[in-house]
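TICKET: design request
STATUS: open
ATTACHED STRUCTURE:
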């Protein structure tokens, strides 16, 4: 079982420079995520959700405030933080085993230990029997399972998920949400999910952090005091979901019901995967 990390974000501010002028992106973000907690972050486009995740993973710097993992300030990428993106970003010339094995490039494990760890994580995500399959032979949902296994193979303290099911059809997404919950319970890992889908956020999260845009800031944190497995059609589930939707004010429920596809994200390079898987 992975060690679950405590994440403390204190007075976080982030801005970019656009045409010589400062553009605030995140403002006064303070949030504590306890070990083993599953936190969902929702918000309309432009509220800085993905920027926040990139800061936590260490892909971006140049911010004010503190981002602390178990009391230590986060600096750069590290194997104690894994991430899964909306696009699976598998290397097409590598099979399932070797794509997952990329996550162990800097692990220090022996070759035998690496093979055993990869086998364990193939089983964890339900892909036993597909070890030698290539990405073009897999469905979208299976490819995301490989991406999740690759992110978990180092047994990180925290797993970050940036709309991991946004490009999938509704039935596959619902099934993988159940699978992600199973993996979270089995691994005991801290998970942080960024999503546009409020129902997904409530189904998975111990609490839902609602963000508002320009600049991005936390509007409210809503606890989800529902036992698992959660019934999406129950009165209690609907009550929490409506409480989250009410926080968006002028944003319609339809805008938040289905996550839009993002087609403009660059493909990660091999060197980036050594740290960001």
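STATUS: resolved
RESOLUTION: sequence designed for all positions
ATTACHED SEQUENCE:
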């Amino acid at each position: 079982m992975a060690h679950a990390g405590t994440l403390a974000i204190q007075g976080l501010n982030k801005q970019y420079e656009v045409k010589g002028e400062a553009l605030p992106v995140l403002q006064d973000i303070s949030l504590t995520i306890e070990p083993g907690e599953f936190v969902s972050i929702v918000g309309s486009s432009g509220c800085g959700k993905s920027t926040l995740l990139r800061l936590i993973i260490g892909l971006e710097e140049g911010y004010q405030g503190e981002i602390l993992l178990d009391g230590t300030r986060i600096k750069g990428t590290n194997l104690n933080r894994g991430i899964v993106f909306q696009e699976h970003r598998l290397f097409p010339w590598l099979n399932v085993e070797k794509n997952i094995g990329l996550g162990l490039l800097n692990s220090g494990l022996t070759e035998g230990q690496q093979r055993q760890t990869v086998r364990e994580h193939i089983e964890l995500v339900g892909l036993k029997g597909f070890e030698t399959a290539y990405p073009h032979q897999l469905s979208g949902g299976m490819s995301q399972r490989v991406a999740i296994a690759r992110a978990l193979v180092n047994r990180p303290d925290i797993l970050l998920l940036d709309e991991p099911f946004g490009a999938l059809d509704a039935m596959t997404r619902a099934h993988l949400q159940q699978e992600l919950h199973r993996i979270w319970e089995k691994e005991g890992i801290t998970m942080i999910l960024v999503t546009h889908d409020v129902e997904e956020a409530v189904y998975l999260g111990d609490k839902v952090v609602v963000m508002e845009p320009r600049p991005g800031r936390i509007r409210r944190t809503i606890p989800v005091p529902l036992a698992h497995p959660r019934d999406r059609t129950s009165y209690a589930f609907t009550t929490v979901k409506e409480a989250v939707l009410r926080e968006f004010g002028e944003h319609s429920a339809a805008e938040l019901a289905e996550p839009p596809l993002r087609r403009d994200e660059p493909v990660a390079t091999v060197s980036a995967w050594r740290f960001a898987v």
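CLOSING REMARK: The radius of gyration is 18 Å. The beta strands are 7-18, 21-33, 38-42, 63-69, 72-73, 81-84, 158-162, 190-195, 207-212, 217-223.
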